[in-house]
Amino acid sequence: MVHSLGTHRLTEKQKRAQAAAKQRKLRALHPARYRAAVKKCHDKNKHKHYAAARTKDAERKLFVLAKYGPRGEVRCSWPGCDVVDPDMLSIDHVLDNGYEWRKQNGIGGRRFYIFLAANAKSLSDYQTLCMNHQFKKRADRCRFNRKHNSDFSMLIPTK
Ligand SMILES: [Zn+2]
Q1: Is 149 in contact with 143 (CB distance < 8 Å)?
Q2: Spacing, Cα 128 to ligand 1 middle (Å)
Q3: CB neighbourhood size of 21 (10 A)
Q4: What's the 83 CA to ligand 1 centre distance in angstroms?
Q5: Mapping DSSP to helix (H, G, I), strand (E, B) and coil, where does residue 154 land?
Q6: What is the pLDDT of residue 109?
Q7: What is the CB neighbour count within 10 angstroms for residue 113?
Q8: In the prediction, which pLDDT does 52 show?
Q9: Which residues of the chain fall below pLDDT 70?
Q10: How far is the CA of 127 from the centre of ligand 1 (A)?
Q11: What is the distance in A from the centroid of ligand 1 to the CA of 137?
Q12: Segments of 41-150 assigned E as strands
């Protein structure tokens, strides 16, 4: 007569639930050992996690650049500008209130893109610009504010 050993097969979901229960027990009974196990797992997989995070950041940046680009394209919004390289593009505060906005909201860098990706409203407050046109816009603004006419056109030789 053959006796079954009673090892019935668990589904993946049951296995995960069992592992989670084991983790919860370990966490409750031996917090230090639990933290060490979590750290060990993180250290082992961190490069995978970081790579996944970088991919996600890049995807989000492309999404946001297209959202605020002309006709939904990843492109500089300056008329006649052909820059499409995402490394050379960034988001411009149309009203030049980026500094105050960052101070008020405490959101900069990566979190700014997360904010823009999540928010469908205020589309007219932002636009995609290349770095050259960010500087050009700033130069125009400085010139206007100083009412100082450093006009380069007279310095450019004409034929
Ligand atoms: Zn441009």
Answers
A1: yes
A2: 9
A3: 10
A4: 6
A5: helix
A6: 83
A7: 19
A8: 94
A9: 1-7, 120-122, 147-159
A10: 11
A11: 10
A12: 89-93, 126-130
| 70 C-alpha to ligand 1 centroid (Å) | 11
Q: How far is the CA of 135 from the centre of ligand 1 (A)?
A: 10
Give the H/E segment covering residue 17.
helix 12-29
Q: Cα of 81 to ligand 1 centre, how many Å?
A: 5
pLDDT at position 27 is 93
Find the helix packing angle between 12-29 and 31-67, rounded to 10°: 120
Q: pTM for the whole thing?
A: 0.68
What pLDDT sits at residue 2? 54
Interval between CA 93 and ligand 1 midpoint (Å):
15
| Structure token pair of residue 26 | 């370990």
Question: For 107-147, how does the pLDDT look when each residue is reduced to its tens digit (9 = 90+)?
Answer: 878 889 999 998 866 578 899 999 999 999 998 888 887 76
How remote is the CA of residue 114 from the centroid of ligand 1, in Å?
23
